[in-house]
Each structure stands twice: as structure tokens, then as C-alpha cells.
Design a protein that fits this description.
Layout (H helix, E strand, L loop, with lengths): L16 H15 L8 E10 L9 E5 L4 E4 L5 E8 L1 E8 L6 E8 L4 E9 L26 E6 H6 L5 H5 L5 E4 L2 E4 L7 E5 L2 E2 L16 E9 L11 E7 L7 E10 L6 E15 L5 E12 L12 E3 L3 E3 L4 E15 L2 E15 L8 E9 L9 E8 L7 E5 L6 E18 L2 E17 L35 E20 L2 E20 L13 E22 L2 E13 L13 E14 L4 E12 L4 H4 L17 E15 L2 E22 L6 E25 L2 E14 L24 E2 L6 E10 L4 E10 L3 E2 L17 E2 L3 E14 L2 E10 L24 H9 L5 E3 L11 E3 L11 E9 L1
Parallel strand pairs: 1-7, 11-14
Antiparallel strand pairs: 1-4, 2-3, 2-5, 5-6, 8-13, 9-10, 11-12, 13-14, 15-16, 15-46, 16-17, 17-20, 18-19, 20-21, 21-25, 22-23, 22-24, 25-26, 26-27, 27-28, 28-29, 29-30, 30-31, 31-32, 32-33, 33-34, 34-35, 35-36, 36-37, 36-38, 38-39, 39-42, 40-41, 42-43, 43-46, 44-45
Length: about 900
């Protein structure tokens, strides 16, 4: 029976998105009746200085007729109740600081509008003040020597993006490729995700954490100039802050879909339900916020696999689809005093994703033959023969090859407890404790290893000389993987302002419990009698820790940011001491930066840093079985980056801000594989070593126009040059199948994500009262690729990534129309992505494994010979020229998603 995802029937998301949004909307509209709705709301904010220290006594005033306000407390927090419904400009003032204004702030009935963090600059910008509705001032960061990019909750609400990572991909210095983010030319696994001060990256195999759009209060990206508080990240840090509940119950429901009737009237069968609400909890001084986001789609890479679908009222369809994700985030806040706060947070994510593989994507019939000639014991062997799209005779049985592809069932759970205590002005300490767990299983039809149905090299139709070598006719995709990581974390930091010094010290302790099992051809026994022709399995535990100290010293207008970080890592006790040179590895990384305000409008900064990152623990512990494809190395050293950057901030006017930077990074000790002898065995296997190196340099420019005169916008441009000896640490493994990966490189070549020029522009139009529209335009020059010929046996090292793919461009839009219905704020959305339906190449050569007679790089050879993308393989000589001819397969994995139009509705209460 095709996979029905029966193991997930107990999950809340099985209710289906259509039913969830219907129930959520009815409940939402029922919270406040027309007769009892109060036409006032609440505004909350946190006022900080540029170093992140709370500012007490700042006046926060609501302009535009309301003329109400409040003052920030010792924690920098301010709450303004009973603000009449409307759109206002918020002004923040304090003697000795530049005045800040935020315009276009909507206040809805019985809803708390959280402005998030408002940072004040210590010196006011001297310029003529003109009161214009919708204007907003920008303060430059005069004490910061780092390069930062900000994504706000309003950005996530107004831009046509599906996740906070999509919004980050628009920023200068960031390259988004194949769903991965590369900061300043680094590998994708060199970016650390931090959620509310707790590092959230799976130590087994680098992966961050997903949060729903309504769960994120803000996202701050540190691309360069990282202070000593950030460690174990070579390229950058994503700092996520989740939302907290206000003093009054408020929330929002959003629903998007690209379905307009039956399946022939939809794009990707996409539905997304987002619900977020919060307010006072059961106890005094306690608030809560809960958000849920469920995304259900067949994706543009829709395979032929069958999924159960249930209907209610003829138009409500429920059931899981090819890709399903549920993200739950909840936070409980207890304000013991105005200066003491305790947070308890739970994040629980689940996803079920079916794979797309062009060779395993046909539905039809396959001939089954009973063979009694091969066995010597007289038994009968079942063999598969010819493929057909109809049952030719009784020997043909139904077959949907996509049902036999692996499905990934993954979950992430974090429970965190955070204590924050403001001892006085400029003196704060934080203590955080968390438990995080990543679980993932990738298998076919919930089968155990011995239940897989396949024989190596026997998936195809041997009688079909045209396309029989490409398309699968039977068997399960020969892959099984199970991963489980549990990480316990305790960290703390203390900061204090002493005269001209802002001191900060802190550290963390982590303990990892790592479990891993991967097999290829799972039902084949290896040399030890275990299932899996290649089998990799381990269970390991290891502790880690760090400590840092840093100082921000202000002297005669110049600011010196200096710090040092100490990291310690142990490989644990599971590996024999005879294989480990040093069980405990330590490193010291200094950081130093200078920020110098040239004028009231300009700040110049410089930063030097030596950064370390411990390799993914998989590369240390894997391959303890002799049958594993690659062997881990417990003697791996931390990978190292030495970075330099020069930055300039310029305030063109009170509403236009620019940030410009030049950077250079020297990266060495990167992971690769080389053949080494296994201790105690007379064989050599690919072994992980610190053998690769890279470098990256570039120029970044950002211009931001705050909302005024009915529009706002942002322009990001990056020139980057990323080169190295290899893009992938697995380049030398047999499963990579790349000729260019079968030699030892001798010089740097362009890396796979080396995009020399990238540009993104966002524009928002509207009065923010009745309507608004946001546009995103992205352009990027082509990524590199390695040309290959059909008879080629060895790659010329000088040709690696020597050619370029065509440039890419996309245009997307989100239009919004605002209404009042039963006292609630209702928004209707029209969202379009890739409006021009551009055919952008995203992956010239996707995986064709298991190869079985087809060149694993045939798509690249086809593109090199013909200039046509989409994939093809060589078949018989059909035109009589003495050479095999190409058989195009139009593999959609090669291209970016085409045009998609979605409709949505949102209710704020």
C-alpha cells in the first residue's frame, strides 16, 4: 500500500489546513462582539542604547491626535494603554540621545502593538526638524564595529516571503542557493543560529531552526566584525528574537493558498495557516504568547506519489501532502519586578517531506516474471521486466515508483528557561538553560532495513533500449537514515558600564548525545553480517564549553571594541585513546574593532577577528564500521577563518541611511576526504582531514529609505569573489559521482556559490491605512559550473568551475487591502512570486544516484554540448551519425520555481 503517513495521524496538523483556518477564523471573530469591542489598543516597546543596554526615563509619545505616552522603566520597557484605534507616529526622546520616530504604526482595538527594540544614539543628529506624517528617523550605530542586517516582524508581514531565511537572503553579503544561505562566501554550515541567546544548531550535522513568521519579533544578522560573545561560527550569526505577550489579549490569524478549486485549478496545492495570540496569563505579572504555523504543499517538484485526501462540505480538503511542516512556538513571561524577568519557552517543529527524483517518478505497470532457473535450491525468484503505461497482460502489476522514494520525518524540540536581571543602569546579567532535540528518520514506506525490496543494478527495464536505462521500473530507493541529537546547554553573561568602559563577560557549557545510522542498499549484508551494503552507525557523547570577555571603551569620540574568546571541546570517551592524539582541544580567538564617528552623519569602523568552528560531529565519529563510505577523524582540528573588514555608515537624511563595507576572509583547515589506511586493517578508505582552504573578498552596499511620503525601500548590492580548493567536504566520495572531485586540487577555483554580482531591491507603496503593496526584485550573475565531455575519464583541474551559467532574476509582489469587519482589522492579500515566470537554473546537475549505467554527470555533459538545460542522457544512435543521441528528460529540479499566485486573508484582534 502506498505510504499514508499513518504514523502521523495523532499529530494536530492532520486536521488539514482548510479546516484549521475555518475554525481559527470563527473563533477569532467570536472573541470580540460588535457591541462590546473597545476602540482602543496598547503600544509596547523596549528602549535601548546602541550597545543594547536598557535606557530608563525615555519619553515615548504617540503623535497624531492621541497625545498619550509613557516613560521607559529600568528595563527599558514602556507600555502605553488606551491608545485610540488609528495609525500614528511614535516619538522617543531623552536628553543626551537622538530623537527617534517610527511612523505608520497601526493600533487596533484590544490589540497590543509591540514596537520591539528602539535603539537610541547618544548624540542627536543636528538637522532641521520637519514634521511630516509618515516620516521616521534613522540613527547610525556610532559604537559598533560589526556589520549587521536587520529583518523586523513588519518585514516578514509585508514582504512576499515564506520564511525569515527568505528575507535574510535579500541582504547584502548573503547568497541564497538551493535553500542554503552563504554569508560572505563561506560554506552554508558556517552560519550559527541563535534563538533568544541560545545557540540552536544541530552539532551532529549543521542545521538551524525554523520559526513561523508570526513567532519572530526580529532577526539580526551579523555578517562580519563578530564580538567575542559569538563563537563556533566561521561566517556569521543569525540572532532571532521571538515575540512576547502584551498586557492585553491580542492576536492574528493568516491564511494563504494557491488553490482555486480542483487540482487542475491550482499551482502547488499550497496552504498555510498562521495563528499567533497572547496577553495576560492566569497569574499576576505573567504574560504569554503562542504561535502556530502549518504549511502544506505538493511543491513545484510534485511527484506521482499518492496521498490520502478527505473532503468536508465538498470544498474543504484535508490530509497531508508531499511537504508538510508545523511550527509551534510558545513563551511564558513572568515579570517578578520591573527589573527581573523569567521566560519559559517551548519550540516544537515537525515536518514530513517526500523526495522528488526524476528517475523515480512514473506511474504505470511493470511485468513480473517468475524465474526458476537461477536458484540451485529449486525456489522461484521474482524478476521485473518491461514497463508499460497500461496492463499488457496478466503478468503486469501496478507500479508507482514515487511511492518507493524515501520520506523524511523530522522534528525539533527546544525547552528553554531564561532569567534576566537588571541590577542598575548599565548593569545586567542573564542566565539561560535549555534542552534541544533533533530527530530525523528517512526511509521508504516505514520499512526496516531487511524489508527493502531491491537488488543493486536491477531497477531498470533491460529490454528497453531507448529510455530503459534511465527510468526506474521497480524496487525501493536504496537509502535509510536515522539521526537523533540531544543537547543540554547552560550559559550566562554579565555586563556592566564602568565609566568609559562597557564590560561584558560570559560563557556556556554544552553536553551532546549523538546517535546516527545510515545505510545504502539496506537489505544487503555487509562483511560483518549487518544490514546495509555501506553501513555507518555510532552513539557518542561529548562535552563542550567556552568563556569570553569583551570591552567597549569610549575615548574622545573613538570606540574600541576588544575581546577574547576561549573554547574547549572534548571528543568524549567512546573512541579508543590510541586513535586520539588530544581528547580535549582548545583554542583562543582574539577580536578587535574600532568605530570612529567622523561627523554627526558618518561613522567609520574596522574589525579584525580570528574565528574557529568545531567540525560537525558526524565527521569526527562516523565510519567506525569498515563498510562505511567514509571514516570520521577524532583528530580533526577546528576550522579557522581570519577576517578583516572596513565599514562606513552614512546618514544621507533623517530618512535615508547607507551602510558600505569591504571585507576579506582567509579560511583554512576546511574539511575534505583523502584515502588513509584503517588502523588494524590492510585497507584504505576515504577519511576526513583538515585539507581544504578558501578565501573570500567583496564589497557590500545597503541603502535604506524609511517610510515617508507614501513609500519606503531598501537596496542591497554585493560584489563577491569566493574561491577555494573545494566546495563540498564530500567531493572525493564515490557517491558524489563527479569527475572533478576525483583529483587533489592544487589551486583555488571559484566555489559553487561564487556569484560575483547580486542585487536586491524592495519597494513598499501605500498609505498603510487602506492599502499597501510590496515589491521585490532580485538579480544575480551566473554561478560557476565545470564543463564536461561525454567520453571524458578525468577532469582537467584548470577547468573546474571555469564556465558560468546564465544570470538569474525574479520579481515578486504582495498587495494588501485593509478593512474593518465587526470591529476587527481584516487584511486581504494578493501574493505573486516570480511574476515574469523566469526560467532560472538553480541546480544544473542534481543527483542521479544510484547511477546504474547512466553517467552521473550527464546533465552537465548535455549542457556543455548543446547549451540546453533540463537534463538528458545518452541513448541509441537514432540519426545514424555513429554517435549516441541525447534523450531529454526535462528534470524540474534543474530550474527555480515558476510563477505562483496566492490569495490570503488575515484577521487581527
Amino acid at each position: 500500500m502506498p505510504r499514508t503517513f499513518a504514523r502521523l495521524l495523532g499529530h494536530p496538523r492532520i486536521l488539514g489546513p482548510s479546516l484549521v483556518v475555518l475554525i481559527s477564523t470563527l473563533v477569532t471573530l467570536g472573541f470580540v462582539s460588535p457591541a462590546t469591542a473597545q476602540q482602543t489598543g496598547t503600544i509596547t516597546a523596549t528602549v535601548l542604547d546602541q550597545s543594547g543596554v536598557p535606557v530608563q526615563g525615555a519619553s515615548v509619545i504617540v503623535l497624531g491626535g492621541a497625545q498619550v505616552g509613557g516613560r521607559s522603566n529600568a528595563s527599558g520597557q514602556v507600555t502605553i494603554p488606551k491608545v485610540p484605534v488609528g495609525t500614528y507616529t511614535i516619538r522617543v526622546m531623552l536628553v543626551g540621545y537622538a530623537r527617534q520616530e517610527r511612523a505608520g504604526i497601526r493600533v487596533d482595538a484590544n490589540r497590543a502593538t509591540n514596537l520591539g527594540e528602539i535603539k537610541l544614539a547618544e548624540e542627536a543628529v543636528r538637522m532641521k526638524t520637519v514634521q511630516v506624517q509618515g516620516e521616521q528617523k534613522i540613527a547610525i550605530r556610532k559604537k559598533d564595529s560589526s556589520t549587521r542586517q536587520i529583518v523586523t516582524s513588519e518585514d516578514l508581514r509585508s514582504l512576499p516571503v515564506d520564511s525569515y531565511k527568505d528575507a535574510i537572503g535579500l541582504k547584502a553579503g548573503v547568497i541564497s542557493q538551493g535553500g542554503e544561505l552563504h554569508f560572505r562566501g563561506g560554506r552554508a554550515d558556517e552560519v550559527l543560529t541563535v534563538v533568544n541567546g541560545i545557540a540552536s544548531r544541530n552539532p551532529l550535522r549543521a542545521e538551524g531552526v525554523d520559526l513561523g513568521l508570526l513567532a519572530v519579533s526580529s532577526s539580526e544578522q551579523v555578517l562580519g566584525g563578530m564580538d567575542a560573545q559569538y563563537g563556533n561560527a566561521l561566517s556569521g550569526v543569525i540572532n532571532l528574537t521571538t515575540r512576547e505577550g502584551g498586557d492585553k489579549f491580542a492576536g492574528e490569524v493568516r491564511y494563504f493558498t494557491d488553490r482555486y478549486g480542483e487540482h487542475d485549478k491550482e499551482f502547488n496545492n499550497f496552504e498555510r495557516v498562521s495563528v499567533g495570540f497572547g496577553g495576560p496569563f492566569l497569574f499576576d505579572k505573567t504574560n504569554y504568547y503562542i504561535s502556530y504555523e502549518g504549511t502544506f504543499t505538493d511543491t513545484y517538484l510534485r511527484n506521482t506519489s499518492q496521498h490520502n485526501e478527505h473532503r468536508f462540505l465538498d470544498f474543504i480538503r484535508t490530509g497531508l501532502r508531499q511537504a508538510n511542516a508545523s511550527n509551534l512556538s510558545s513563551k511564558l513571561t513572568y515579570k517578578v519586578t520591573p527589573n527581573q524577568k523569567l521566560n519559559l519557552e517551548l519550540i516544537a517543529n515537525n515536518s514530513v517531506d517526500g523526495r522528488y527524483h526524476n528517475r523515480w517518478n512514473r506511474q504505470g505497470f511493470v511485468q513480473v516474471l517468475q524465474d526458476s532457473t537461477a536458484p540451485t535450491d529449486g525456489s522461484i525468484t521474482q524478476r521485473y521486466g518491461t514497463w508499460a503505461y497500461y496492463p499488457v497482460d496478466s503478468t503486469y502489476v501496478p507500479m508507482n515508483t514515487a511511492d518507493h522514494l524515501p520520506v523524511t520525518d523530522a522534528s525539533y524540540t527546544q525547552v528553554a528557561l531564561t532569567w534576566r536581571h537588571t541590577l542598575g543602569i548599565g548593569e545586567i546579567y542573564n542566565i539561560r538553560a535549555s534542552r534541544q532535540q533533533w530527530e530525523s528518520t528517512e526511509d521508504v514506506l516505514d520499512r526496516q532495513l531487511w524489508e527493502y525490496e531491491q537488488s543493486p543494478n536491477n531497477y531498470y527495464d533491460p529490454f528497453n533500449r531507448i529510455d530503459g536505462a534511465y527510468y526506474v521500473t521497480n524496487g525501493d530507493y536504496p537509502f535509510y537514515e536515522r539521526r537523533n541529537t540531544t543537547t543540554y546547554t547552560l550559559n550566562a553573561d554579565y555586563s556592566k558600564k564602568v565609566k568609559a568602559h562597557n564590560l561584558m563577560a560570559g560563557g556556556d557549557i554544552n553536553y551532546n548525545d549523538l546517535s546516527f545510522l545510515l545505510t545504502q542498499f539496506p537489505n544487503v549484508l555487509d562483511a560483518n553480517g549487518n544490514y546495509g551494503a555501506t553501513r555507518d552507525e555510532f552513539q557518542n557523547y561529548n562535552p563542550e564549553g567556552s568563556f569570553f570577555v569583551q570591552d567597549r571603551w569610549e575615548y574622545e569620540g573613538m570606540v574600541l571594541n576588544a575581546g577574547v574568546r576561549y573554547d574547549s571541546f572534548s571528543v568524549g570517551n567512546q573512541i579508543s585513546s590510541s586513535e586520539v592524539a588530544d581528547k580535549v582541544k582548545t583554542q583562543v580567538s582574539p577580536r578587535i574593532g574600532i568605530a570612529y564617528p567622523i561627523s554627526d552623519r558618518d561613522v567609520m569602523s574596522f574589525h579584525y577577528g580570528r574565528l574557529f568552528q568545531v567540525p560537525d560531529r558526524l565527521y569526527l565519529y562516523q565510519g567506525r564500521n569498515i563498510s562505511a563510505e567514509a571514516r570520521g577523524n577524532p583528530n580533526l582540528e577546528p576550522q579557522t577563518t581570519i577576517s578583516y573588514q572596513l565599514g562606513v555608515q552614512h546618514l544621507f537624511s533623517k530618512e535615508i541611511y547607507g551602510q558600505f563595507g569591504v571585507y576579506f576572509k582567509d579560511i583554512f583547515g576546511l574539511l575534505t576526504t583523502v584515502n588513509q589506511e584503517v588502523p588494524g586493517f590492510a585497507v584504505t578508505v576515504p577519511t576526513r582531514v583538515n585539507g581544504d582552504y578558501a578565501s573570500s573578498r567583496g564589497i557590500e552596499m545597503t541603502l535604506i529609505k524609511r517610510h515617508s511620503h507614501g513609500f519606503s525601500g531598501e537596496l542591497n548590492y554585493t560584489y563577491g569573489n569566493a574561491t577555494g580548493t573545494a566546495s563540498d567536504p564530500n567531493r572525493a566520495l564515490a557517491s558524489s559521482g563527479n569527475l572533478s572531485d576525483q583529483f587533489k586540487p592544487t589551486s583555488e577555483q571559484p566555489l559553487e556559490w561564487d556569484q560575483r554580482h547580486s542585487l536586491s531591491a524592495t519597494l513598499r507603496l501605500g498609505n498603510e491605512k487602506d492599502w499597501a503593496a510590496s515589491f521585490i526584485y532580485q538579480f544575480g550573475t551566473g554561478f560557476p559550473y565545470t564543463p564536461e565531455q561525454r567520453e571524458q575519464r578525468r577532469q582537467d583541474p584548470n577547468l573546474v568551475n571555469s564556465e558560468r551559467l546564465p544570470s538569474t532574476s525574479t520579481l515578486s509582489v504582495q498587495a494588501e487591502r485593509f478593512f474593518r469587519v465587526w470591529g476587527q482589522s481584516v487584511t486581504f492579500y494578493l501574493q505573486g512570486t516570480n511574476l515574469l515566470d523566469a526560467e532560472n537554473i538553480t541546480e544544473l546537475q542534481p543527483s542521479l544516484w544510484p547511477n546504474n549505467g547512466v553517467n552521473s554527470n550527464s546533465y552537465t555533459v548535455y549542457y556543455t554540448e548543446t547549451g540546453r538545460a533540463g537534463g538528458a542522457f545518452l541513448t541509441q544512435d537514432l540519426d545514424g551519425d555513429g554517435r549516441e543521441d541525447w534523450f531529454p528528460v526535462s528534470d524540474p529540479r534543474v530550474f527555480q520555481q515558476g510563477r505562483v499566485i496566492r490569495l490570503g486573508v488575515g484577521v487581527q484582534f
